[in-house]
């Protein structure tokens, strides 16, 4: 499992947001992280979380979607040099959570959010 959308059908048993690393633990012990590798010329951080992860715990995910919403949200402030808005949506049959990240840089550095999977220890 390497792509965010491959979370569909999986069940989250816990979610934690700590220092702009969002950690999801799945039913089999697999840990997934959304994060950005720090760079002195770029800042990428969670801007908004809409919904409650507690509503997703213990239920299979029906949606796991990543989308660039830069055109939708526009400049974060008047003189922004370079920016990228990325939204991640997770949903079960009856609840959803969206996490919106804002990446800013001088235009020469990554504004991406990364998705990493740490398989469960056997």
Summarize the structure in words.
The protein starts with 11 loop residues before the first strand and ends with a strand. It has 122 residues and is mostly beta strands. The chain has one domain. Strand 6 (82-91) and strand 7 form a beta hairpin. It contains 1 helix and 8 strands; from the N terminus they run E-E-E-E-E-H-E-E-E. The strands form 2 sheets. It has a 4-stranded antiparallel β-sheet with strand order 1-2-3-8, with no helix packed on it. The protein has a 4-stranded antiparallel β-sheet with strand order 4-7-6-5.
Secondary-structure element order, N to C: EEEEEHEEE
Largest sheet strand order: 1-2-3-8
Low-confidence stretches: none
**Tally of separate helices:** 1
Summarize the entry for a quick read.
The chain is built from 1 helix and 8 strands.
Topology readout:
Layout lengths: L11 E7 L2 E6 L4 E5 L6 E9 L12 E6 L1 H4 L8 E10 L4 E10 L8 E5 L4
Antiparallel strand pairs: 1-2, 2-3, 3-8, 4-7, 5-6, 6-7
Features:
122 residues; mainly beta; four-stranded antiparallel sheet; 1 helix; 3% helix; globular
């Amino acid at each position: 499992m390497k792509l965010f959308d491959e979370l569909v059908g999986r069940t989250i048993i816990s979610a934690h947001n700590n220092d702009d690393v969002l950690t999801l633990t799945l039913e089999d012990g697999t840990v997934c992280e959304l994060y950005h590798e720090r760079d002195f010329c770029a800042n990428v951080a969670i801007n908004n979380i809409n919904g409650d992860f507690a509503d997703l715990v213990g239920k299979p995910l029906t949606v796991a979607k990543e989308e660039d919403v830069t055109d939708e949200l526009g400049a974060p402030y008047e003189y922004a040099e370079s920016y990228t808005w990325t939204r991640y949506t997770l949903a079960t049959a009856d609840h959803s959570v969206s996490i919106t990240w804002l990446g800013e840089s001088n235009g020469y550095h990554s504004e991406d959010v990364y998705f990493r999977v740490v398989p469960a220890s056997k």
